[in-house]
Write a structure and sequence with these properties.
By secondary structure, the chain is mainly alpha-helical. It has a domain of 109 residues. It has ten helices and no strands. The N and C termini lie far apart (61 Å).
């Protein structure tokens, strides 16, 4: 059993059998932490289903409700790491599922700031990746390149090769839109990293990018 569920049970038994009701608030906090983690995990599963369906299934309102609930609980618990991750996923839902590229950048910037405070470089890398997408959409190419480069650096430092490969695919598209670098070289590295990491979906993104970015005959 999860230690937090054990604590809640012990607080219950102490209150019922020993009259020690002063521990019930702590029991509630333990259960709030479990609920927050579970809500975040369930929301991610729903997001994975959305991606697997190519977005054809449309919005699942349960997904954003789960992310919002997780965010609220982490905030009430003072869990900065959890709040950073939940804030990222709230932004991701609005940007990826709803296609909102105009108002989500502050959500990702806040997630990145919280992740920095928590020392969570992985969540920060995700947040900066999506800051880059929003900045690129807004025509701020230099800021987009900088955010994506920092995300990639963090992922390299973490040994997150699949994530590096995903970023290199995005970098190739940025390059094709006038950014620095060699799109072909970026995609070659992305393909090698994805293959080594077993990231077959990312390999598909690489192949798609090669087709999309190939010069017109």
């Amino acid at each position: 059993m999860d230690d937090r569920l054990t604590e809640a049970l012990e607080r219950y038994e102490a209150a019922v059998f020993a009259g020690a009701t002063d521990g019930l608030d702590a029991g509630d906090r333990a259960l709030d932490a479990v609920e927050a983690d579970t809500a975040l995990a369930r929301g991610r599963i729903r997001h994975a289903r959305f991606l697997a369906a190519g977005g054809s299934a449309g919005e699942d309102p349960t997904e954003i409700a789960l992310f919002d609930r997780a965010l609220s609980l982490y905030q009430s618990l003072g869990d900065v790491r959890g709040e950073a991750e939940a804030q990222f996923w709230v932004g991701c839902y609005h940007q990826v599922v709803r296609g909102d590229m105009d108002t989500t950048e502050p959500m990702f910037a806040r997630a990145a700031d919280l992740a920095t405070k928590a020392g969570d470089d992985l969540t920060r890398s995700y947040a900066l990746r999506h800051v880059a997408f929003a900045a690129q959409h807004a025509g701020r190419g230099t800021e987009a390149q900088e955010a994506l480069a920092e995300s990639t650096r963090l992922r390299r430092d973490l040994g997150f090769d699949a994530g590096v490969a995903a970023n290199l695919v995005a970098q190739a598209y940025f390059t094709a839109e006038g950014g620095p670098g060699d799109a072909t070289a970026l995609l070659d590295e992305a393909a090698a990293l994805a293959a080594a990491a077993g990231a077959h979906a990312v390999t598909g993104w690489v192949d798609e990018a090669r087709t999309n970015l190939a010069p017109a005959a």
